Amino acid sequence: MWFASCLEWFRSYLQLLRSRVFIGYSMMYGLAQAGFFAFMTVGATVFERDLGMGPAEFGATWAALAAAYVAGATLTGKLSATTPLPRLLGIGLAILFAGTASLLLLVLSVGVTYWGLTVPLIVLSAANGIVTPLSLAGAVSYRPLISGSSSGLSSAIGLTLSGAFTIVAGALYTGKFLPVAVLMTVVAALTVATGLMTRESPSVKA
Questions:
Q1: SS3 label, residue 81
Q2: What is the percent of the chain where pLDDT is above 90?
Q3: pLDDT of 70 higher than 90
Q4: Taking all residues of the chain, what is their mean pLDDT, rounded to a whole number?
Q5: How far apart are CA 119 and CA 114, in angstroms?
Q6: What is the per-residue burial (b if ≥16 Cβ within 10 Å, else e) of 172-197?
Q7: Which whole number is the average pLDDT over 50-65?
Q8: Domain spans of the chain, in order of start
Q9: Most buried in the list 4, 20, 147, 161, measured by CB within 10 Å?
């Protein structure tokens, strides 16, 4: 019995790993988080070393970022009943890239400043509240008959991917935030690119 169950799991995972659409949604889920996780890896140090912020100010800023994520997710939940998932995802991806690109441009033009970091990060956090739940929902619902396997595998792919970028961000940060801002922008561009993977052929299901 256990062998048959294992074989069925293996077949389900193989089916999912062969799906361009499933992989696209799973990578989108991971990359959307990766950009923000990259900042989280060095954020406390940047706010303290470059901006001289104490624990209270840093906590308030982090609370604002969390509130932005919740606001994005709440709005997405309300709009998802009437707006197609691809359209909502497109909006979320556009906002995500705009927030990250503006962060890089501000760091390049005026350096590391409180508002130059916080405002783009609030935009990025709100975009994550849109993209993260929708991309995970897209991965899970793509093969509804094996939604349990889809949920576990997509989460594993996404968390592994986002976790890998925290390591990269830590390696890049040597006291200067610019390399991390560049990494975040590259990750945002890759996240947008995964949207192309989730588009199905009119006649063939990936």
A1: coil
A2: 51
A3: yes
A4: 86
A5: 8
A6: bbeeebeebbebbbbbbebbbebbeb
A7: 88
A8: 57-196
A9: 161
Q: What secondary structure, in 3-state letters, does 133-149 show?
A: HHHHHHHHHHCHHHHHH
Residue whose structure tokens are 């001289």: 52
What's the CA angle centered on 173, arms 169 and 178, to 5 degrees? 95
What is this structure's pTM? Answer: 0.87
Question: Counting every residue, how long is the chain?
Answer: 206
Place of tokens 């935009």: 123
Q: Computed from CA positions of residues 20, 21, 26, 30, in that sequence, does the dihedral angle turn out positive or negative?
A: positive
Please report where in the chains the tokens 């975009």 appear, as a residue: 127
Q: What is the pLDDT of residues 171-198, one digit of tens each?
A: 999 989 999 999 999 999 999 999 888 8
* DSSP for residue 200: P
Distance from C-alpha of 146 to C-alpha of 88, rounded to nearest angstrom: 24
Residues of the chain with pLDDT > 70: what percent? Answer: 89
User: What torsion do the CA atoms of 161, 194, 144, 155 make, to the nearest 10 degrees?
Assistant: 10
**What span, in angstroms and rounded, lies between the C-alpha atoms of 198 and 20?**
7
Do residues 19 and 80 touch, judged by C-beta distance below 8 A?
no
Please give the structure tokens belonging to residue 178: 């610019």
